[in-house]
Amino acid sequence: MADVFFKEGPFLINNMSPYHVRFPTMEIGFSILFLTGVLWGTSSVLGYAGDGFNGFDISKHNIPLEDILSGGPPRDGIPAIMHPVFLDAHKATFLHKEDRILGIQGSHGAKAYPIKIMNWHEIVNDTFEGHPLVITYCPLCGTGIAFKGMVQGRTATFGVSGLLYQSDLLMYDHETQSLWSQIAMEAVAGPLTGEKLDHVFLEHTTWGEWLRDHPHTVVLSTQTGYRRNYNRDPYLGYAQRAGVFFPTHHSDSRYFSKELVVGVEVKGRFKAYPFSELQKAAKPVHDVVNGRAIIVRFHAASQSASVSDAKGRRIPSVMAYWFAWIAFHPHSLVFTGG
Question: What distance in Å separates the CA atoms of residue 89 and residue 276, rounded to the nearest whole number?
Answer without folding.
Answer: 32
